[in-house]
Amino acid sequence: MLICVLPANAAFDVEASTSSGRVDTSRPVTMTIQGDLRRANRSVHGKVNGGGPLLTVHTGSGDVRIN
Q: pTM for this structure?
């Protein structure tokens, strides 16, 4: 499992995905979901706290957690 811990007031754009696992975030993410909603838990693309610098996280196997 890959865990990213950021300050509560951090503002950023996020692109997180996994090929085999799920993406979880404790932060509200403003996002648009396209395609198959059954796969939505494997990919998150959006803005946290209005957006900012891009945080890109990908793993081929396992979960991604953004706290």
A: 0.77
Residue labelled with tokens 């946290």: 48
Read off the amino acid at residue 22.
R
Q: Chain-centre distance of CA 29, in angstroms? A: 8
What whole-number distance in Å separates Cα of residue 46 and Cα of residue 23? 13
Note the pLDDT tens digit of each residue in 3-48: 778 898 999 999 988 888 888 888 888 876 666 666 567 888 889 9
